[in-house]
What we know:
This protein is α+β, with helices and mostly antiparallel strands. Helix content is 21%, strand content 17%. The model has no long low-confidence stretch (mean pLDDT 96).
Amino acid sequence: MEHQHREAIERDGFTIIPGVLTPAEADSLRADLDRIERREGIVPARNPFEGHHTVRIYNLLARGACYTRIPVDEKVLPVVEAVLDAGCLISSLSSIAIGPGESAQMLHSDDQVIGLPRPHPALVCNTMWALTDFTADNGATRVVPGSHKSMRCPDPRGDEEAEAGAIPAEMPKGSVLVWHGSLWHGGGANRTSERRYGIAMNYCAGFIRQQENQQLGIPQDIARDFSPRLKELVGYGVYRGLIGHIDKRSPLGLLGDDDRLKTIWD
C-alpha cells in the first residue's frame, strides 16, 4: 500500500490513508485538545489565514504524552519518508479546530516561503489527521490536484485559477490526508453547527529549518522520555552524518544519551 500512496502523491500531490485512528482514539485526542484549550484560554487568531473562528494549538509534543504516537505512526511515517527520506524532521505538530461560521482559508502551498524555482523535489510533506469526519460542509481541507507541479504558487490576494481547481478532501474520522508541500490547498468553510477537528502533523527534509523550533519549544525533561525515533524526528540527530552536530558529537548528548557520532568524513 505504501507505494500506492507514494504514486498518488507523485501524480496528484496528495493521498488519503484510511483507518489510522480508531473512533475512540480520535475522540480521546479531541477531548484532550478541548482540555488544553480550556486550561490555557486559547482563542482564535486575528488574521484571515489562521482564521477568525478557528482555534489552533501549537507545540503539542510539549503538551501531552498522547501526541507522541502521531509523528511515528507506522501507517503514516513510511509514506512521508518515501516522499522525503528517513532523515526527515518534525516541522510542526498542531491542532486546527474550524468552528461554525469560518470562511474558506486562502489557498497556499506549505513551502511557499522557500524561494526556490518551481516545481522542485519535495522539501516538505504534511499530514492532516481527521478527529471528526471531514466533509465539504464542515471545512474539509481543499486541495488542487496536480498543483504541486506548477511553476508558481497561488496568489494569496485571490486566485481564480486556483479556486476553480479546488476540491474538498473528504474523509471519515480516523483518516489521514498526506500531501506534497508544494500542493495548493487550504482549509474549507464551515457551514455546519459543529467544529471540524484535525491535527496537522507536518514534516520537512532534514536540511530544512523546522517551522516550529522543536529543540527550544520542547523542554528537555519531556524530550528525554521520547522514543529513539521521536528524538531523531524532533531534531536530536544528525542528518547524513553532517548537518546538526554539536562539536562533532550527536545532540542526543543533551538528553543524556550516547552522543558518539560517525560523521560523513570519518
